[in-house]
Write a structure and sequence with these properties.
The radius of gyration is 19 Å and the shape is globular. Helix 1 runs parallel beside helix 2, helix 7 packs antiparallel against helix 8 and helix 8 packs antiparallel against helix 9. Strands 1, 2, 3, 4, 5, 6, 7, 8, 9, 10 and 11 form an 11-stranded mixed β-sheet that branches. It has about 300 residues and is α/β, with parallel strands linked by helices.
Length: about 300
């Protein structure tokens, strides 16, 4: 099965280069490596081109977010014959053997559209394991987490969505389901794609025998953006897949979050959630970086 690996870069060339070199060191699979630079500053794309010769580098003239950036590479990879596409965050590492385990699921079960590995998360000094996620309109923290990895021999785990940190997508599925909805921009795209895939009969699994490592090195800027998009996009997801009740539910939840941060005198983060509420209700989606973090 012909494999492509897609890595996004946004203002973090050093981290992306390390991820590219890791994948380039695989011995058996030797995938095509696609790198999308999402309109980074300070010559990031040039550094990647210089230090990672042989990768397929796409220079986007504007920041298209997670969905839009990945769509650029996925579309080209499919046209060049990729049958499976591994989306990999530039702060995540996965060994070749783990990817082989993911590919084996595709070979064994033709109805599987998206699979992901068990993810060992490291945040500061804390380590835990993520085993996929639940429907994102049903709660805020929808990642399925455990302090310990599953036992050896644990079968495939059916999940509502596979996290975009590391996800293997069957190219043939995309012919039916279509690519990412770019209106999400950042957060929620994988949940939406998996929802659409499952509605058309495709299965989505976590493969416990496959392991990826993810170290959260995001700064304060990224965390505030995530606070905004992760809530605002619940409204988009609810409009597409939920009900009016879900819109009311998230309105109430968002107001409580805003009030909680105001009581703690955390005005900046409260503003992010307030904007998420307003934009979610009026249907203002896509890239809103400048509104959330005006320069």
């Amino acid at each position: 099965m012909k494999l492509a690996v897609v890595i996004l870069n946004w203002n973090n060339a050093e981290q992306s280069i390390a991820a590219i070199h890791h994948v380039s060191g695989w011995h058996t699979l030797q995938p095509d490596i696609w790198v999308v630079d999402n309109a980074s500053r300070d010559g990031d794309a040039d550094r990647i081109a210089e230090q990672c010769q042989g990768v397929r580098l796409i220079r986007s003239p504007r920041n298209l977010g997670f969905g839009g950036g990945n769509n650029l590479a996925i579309d080209r990879a499919r046209h060049e014959g990729a049958e499976a596409i591994l989306l990999l965050n530039n702060d995540a590492f996965i060994e070749e053997r783990a990817v082989e385990d993911l590919l084996a699921v595709f070979s064994d079960r033709s109805t599987v559209g998206i699979v992901g590995p068990l993810i060992r998360e490291t945040v500061a000094d804390q380590t835990y394991y993520t085993l996929g996620g639940r429907d994102i309109v049903e709660g805020y923290d929808t990642h399925i987490v455990s302090d310990t990895p599953p036992d050896a021999g644990t079968p495939l785990i059916t999940v509502d969505y596979v996290p975009g940190t590391a996800a293997l997508i069957r190219a043939a599925m995309l012919e039916q389901v279509a690519l990412f909805d770019e209106e999400y921009f950042f957060s929620g795209e994988m949940a939406d794609l998996c929802k659409r895939a499952r509605a058309m009969g495709w299965e989505t699994f976590i493969v416990p025998s496959a392991l990826a490592n993810h170290r959260d090195g995001a700064g304060a800027q990224r965390h505030s953006l995530y606070a905004y998009y992760s809530v605002r996009n619940r409204f988009l997801f609810a409009r597409k897949h939920g009900s009016r009740w879900h819109l009311l539910l998230w309105s109430a939840r968002c107001l409580r979050i805003v009030l909680r941060h105001l009581r703690k005198r955390q005005a900046a983060i409260a503003r992010c959630y307030w904007l998420a509420l307003i934009d979610g209700l009026v249907g203002r989606y896509g890239n809103q970086h400048e509104r959330v973090q005006p320069s």
